[in-house]
Amino acid sequence: MSSDKRESTEFLKESVTDELEIIDIFRTLHRKKEKLWLWQENKENPNQRSIHLCTIRKVDVLAKLIWLNPLNQSKFHFNLDEQRKDSDFFLYSKAKNMAVRFQARERDSEYMSFSTPKKINALSDDFSQKLNLIEKENEREHIHERQLPRKQAKGKQTIQALLANELQPKAYELYDISAGGLAIKWQDPGYFKKGDQIKILSINGAALKQPIQGEVVSIREMNDEIFKIGVQFIKGES
Asked: Based on the number of CB atoms within 10 Å of its own CB, is 227 exposed (0-12), middle (13-18) or buried (19 or more)?
């Protein structure tokens, strides 16, 4: 057995292969509306994979299909080009510590479907503790990177902003702000990627005389599956 295969099997506790039990697991996830981690394999550059949170939209027993939805107000931003169209996807339940690997039957920014799997892997506790899909937020570790001090938002303050690939602006909860940038809270890490251009239109309902152009520079996980999106202002652009 190769070292890679031996290492991967050490992470497996057991597998669920009974068809009725597998269907029951997905029905439970659907009923509880659990947020599941979903990502697309990227063998060429694993660090650049898109990672989303999603929910089970439907368990179609007759058609033997599982349907996934992005979270409310979010979209799937997976690679759709020819080279990656057959890439495997991974779906992970943190609550059940179970994962499944699949190929999508249908997919778009608004949904995804795949055939009911023949196996669900129950992962070891050691693996779940080591699993780190998104960098954890650590203020002390990154404070030296800031050129200007930031002021944390008090209460629930919001901004209205427009992503470069979106037609309509969205409201985002403000986390902190400085003269050089800001951070917002969002529910789905895959909705943004580093390098995304974003235009800030208003703060707390007050329209800016001149919109501020920014660039997404970091995506980190806070508590309770909320993500902090760091935005750096681009000088001289609006």
From this structure: buried
Residue 26, φ and ψ in degrees, nearest 5? -65, -35
What's the mean pLDDT in 209-218? Answer: 95
Mean pLDDT of the chain: 85
CA distances from 66 to 11, 29, 54, 56, 118 (A): 25, 11, 12, 7, 12
Are 25 and 98 contacting, i.e. CB atoms less than 8 angstroms apart? yes
69, 52 Cβ separation under 8 angstroms: no
Q: What is the pTM of this model?
A: 0.82
For the domain 15-130, what is the CATH superfamily, name and number? Electron Transport, Fmn-binding Protein; Chain A (2.30.110.10)
Domain ranges in the chain? 15-130, 139-233
CATH topology of domain 139-233: Thrombin, subunit H (2.40.10)
Q: What is the structure's pLDDT at 124?
A: 81
Provide Rg for the chain, Cα atoms. Answer: 20
Instruction: Please name which of 124, 41, 21 lies closest in space to residue 90, comparing C-alpha atoms.
Output: 41
Q: What angle do CA 107, 23, 9 make, to 5 degrees?
A: 80
Instruction: Name the least confident of 38-42, 145-149, 156-160.
Output: 145-149
pLDDT tops 60 at residue 238:
no
Return the sign of the alpha-carbon dihedral for residues 144, 150, 152, 158.
negative
Residue 47 backbone phi and psi in degrees, to 5: -75, -10
